[in-house]
Amino acid sequence: MAFGTQDEPDEVMNEINMTPLVDVMLVLLIIFIITVPVMKHAVNIDLPRATSEPEQAKPENILFSISAQGDYYWNEQKIADGELPGRLAAEAAKNPQPELHIRGDKEVRYERVAKAMSAAREAGVRKIGFITEPDAK
Question: Domain for residue 119, yes or no?
């Protein structure tokens, strides 16, 4: 038995076998070559947007003004006192109900504003608001 000779079959190899490593690297290279073009060549499409919720129609606001003389104005048009309950009832019947914005002159008697608010309440108008102007400082 001579030590150091390579003819003996039981001797341990001193070099790393590169063949399995090269096989694994080639398989990975082929996988990347196949998948990269698929990821990059997507077709850009601008799809339409849709929702399942019905669109809420926003009603117009009613601009109700009371002048300093006590005259009523419905969207800038003068109306008689007798027309007010009918117009308010027609607007209260709409779905969705519009908002009633009341603009009262600061010189008008409170009684005229209170009558208009009472008529709106009796007609069934649920949304009533007051429009004011900010103080000038």
Answer: yes
